[in-house]
């Protein structure tokens, strides 16, 4: 039974390991360009020796499952008469500090993400190659994290940080659940909101309409990106978007399909709260079993997760969007003919 479970944590701050004594712990995990944030509260008399920049690792255990959930560094330490507050960031926080000024030529979105991470000194994990770019200007008007999230979004990839602290950009397949949670067993609360989705298609146009980034036409602006075959719109049901960096028709089509896929999925979204589920993080695909009537059974994919130890116990709250046929990677492979 859930009442017999004994949630626990193992927190490493610098050279110290903590398994008790914390007054509170909250870990917020968000898909890019959101930043992951670990907040800790200790008694004022706790023998804390960690300093700014020291390594941090958090392992959570629900009593049934155990997982590393965060790897980063100490970003801030605050002291009051009654407590010590420690804040830690991971690779997303490192990327958010950098405002780059760099131009990349004949690269993929994945190459841009890896190069930006390298410039920031962040480790990289699984990164989808994504759309091909004749060039990309990473200017200081955006942070490195915002640039990475932008090009990942064009590719239909979700930007985030792994439990080991590595930056990732993965195309999520939400047609098949990875984790099953049951109402009345793990799940304590649940909410769902459906809204109308009047936009039938998103059309993304670039500044050139080349067939390849290797073609000289990829660097030449065109008067008619659609080559005389302009699709319907712009209108209420057909939304247009201009992205000059997408110089090939295939890259523009992929970006449009990614925008459509994301829009349709988020038209049916919500949140749930559960006893501590350490394996959940942005990008996890979940099935809800025995859901009350009217609530979404799934599969759903998670865009944000919060793990918390506090007076109410050890809980996980996750925000989700509809998966299944609304978030199938095959939606990104549609031919240009289906869009134009």
Structure description:
This protein has 340 residues and is mainly beta. It contains four helices and 20 strands. It has helices spanning 91-97, 109-120, 144-154, 249-266; strands at 8-13, 16-18, 24-30, 37-43, 55-61, 66-79, 83-89, 102-108, 124-127, 132-138, 158-161, 167-170, 179-182, 187-194, 201-205, 238-242, 268-275, 285-289, 300-310, 313-322. Strands 1, 2, 3, 4, 5, 6, 7, 13, 14, 17, 18, 19 and 20 form a 13-stranded mixed sheet that branches. The longest helix is centred in the C-terminal third of the chain and has 18 residues, at 249-266. The protein is globular.
List the helices and strands and how they pair.
Layout: E1 8-13, E2 16-18, E3 24-30, E4 37-43, E5 55-61, E6 66-79, E7 83-89, H1 91-97, E8 102-108, H2 109-120, E9 124-127, E10 132-138, H3 144-154, E11 158-161, E12 167-170, E13 179-182, E14 187-194, E15 201-205, E16 238-242, H4 249-266, E17 268-275, E18 285-289, E19 300-310, E20 313-322
Helix pairs in contact: 2-3
Looking at this protein, list some descriptive labels.
340 residues, mainly beta, 13-stranded mixed sheet, three-stranded mixed sheet, 4 helices, 20 strands, 39% strand, disordered C terminus
Major pleated sheet: 13 strands, mixed
Model regions low in confidence, pLDDT < 50 over at least 5 residues: 335-340
What's the helix count?
Answer: 4
Mean residue pLDDT: 90
Please tell me how large the radius of gyration is.
Answer: 22 Å
Instruction: Measure the end-to-end span.
Output: 55 Å
| SSE succession | EEEEEEEHEHEEHEEEEEEHEEEE
The number of E-state strands comes to 20
Secondary structure class reads: mainly beta
The portion of residues assigned to helices is 10-25%
**Rough outline:** globular
Strand content: 35-45%
